[in-house]
Amino acid sequence: MKHVVIGLVLSFAIAVTGCRRAQSAAASSAAEEKTYPLKGEIVSVDQARHVLVVTHEDIPGLMPGMTMEFSVSAGDAANAKAGQRIRAQVIPSKTGNFRLEQIWPDDETSVSAVEAGAKALRQDTMIRGRGAYREVGENMPDFTLYDQNGRVVQAGRFRGKMVMMNFIFTRCPVANMCPAATQKMMATQSLARKAGIKDVEFVSITLDPAYDTPGVLKGYAAERGIDTSNFSFLTGPENAIKDLLAQFGVLEEFDGPLLKHTLATLLISPEGKIIHRADGTVWEPQDFVAKMQR
Ligand SMILES: [Cu+2]
Fold first, then answer.
1. Which of 25-29, 141-145, 252-256 has the highest mean pLDDT?
2. 167: which residues sit within 8 A by CB, 6+ positions away?
3. How far apart are alpha carbons 116 and 101 in whole angstroms?
4. How far is the CA of 220 from the centre of ligand 1 (A)?
5. 144 bridge partner residues
6. pLDDT band (50, 70, 90) for residue 8
């Protein structure tokens, strides 16, 4: 255990220079804009214009409840369906246009499943205490998160399949950290397919759930042309992500606006056991494929 801790600290020190979440001009100007929490139901979706018609509850300080149009990102538009309940942040513009960001599913079934999952994970992490970190040979922790489509995904869904898992965030601006990790996951997915390996799933969990909503992850995958038939991007409540990172041994630390983190890439057996782990950026897609073939 001691060796593991030292190993992690070392790789953290090496990787610390890596990934920094710099605030772009757009992000910082967005941060200065006043936002208002919204709860409502999607009435219709205009995919071409990226516009949702939403019936929303009263928004104190902004407007009473009504049915109106909001512009959204491409990823949020792609996920939206009439009849969905959502919560989001409204950003009014001076031109009288209203934008929705931070869109999350808000139907009772999804919310209670994800909350129950986060609570169970919290308890499990507390009970494990200093032994929260799961080494190779242990089972992966249970989790309930949202995928990039806004669907609830539980760890159990991957039983019977191998899972290659890593941790990234979409705003990571450092080319050799998260962007490179995503490229290598894609390369592994393609190599595994060419090698005829079936029953393998690729999973990237966000380190930055405050920004990475299902719609943001959807946009991230779409912009990169990622084949999401067996590659999902997961997000969820901040406390659940924090507990998962502790259990998977991924270190993360905010230094002002900068998010510094380590990288870990894991292979999980069809029975849910962690069978291989690569820390940092130095691993080869073909090594993971070779391990999948065993
Ligand atoms: Cu990164």
1. 141-145
2. 204, 205, 206, 207, 245, 248, 250, 261, 263, 264
3. 25
4. 14
5. 154
6. very low
Residue 261 annotated as part of some ligand binding site:
yes
Domains by residue range for the chain, with CATH: 3-20+109-293 (3.40.30.10), 33-106 (2.40.50.320)
What separation in Å is there between the alpha carbon of 186 and the centre of ligand 1? 16
Which residues is 44 bridged to in the sheet?
Answer: 53
Say how far apart CA 188 and CA 169 lie, in whole Å: 19
Sign of CA dihedral 283, 286, 292, 294: negative
| Cβ-proximal residues to 166 (8 Å cutoff; 6+ apart), any chain | 181, 185, 203, 204, 205, 263, 264, 265, 266
Ligand 1 centroid – CA 208 distance (Å): 10
Q: Separation of 19 CA from ligand 1 center, angstroms?
A: 4
The CA 170 to ligand 1 mean position distance, Å, reads 8
172 is in an annotated binding site: yes
Cα 261 to ligand 1 centroid, rounded to whole Å:
7
* pTM listed for this prediction: 0.89
pLDDT at position 146: 98
Query: Does residue 178 have a known ligand-binding role?
Result: yes
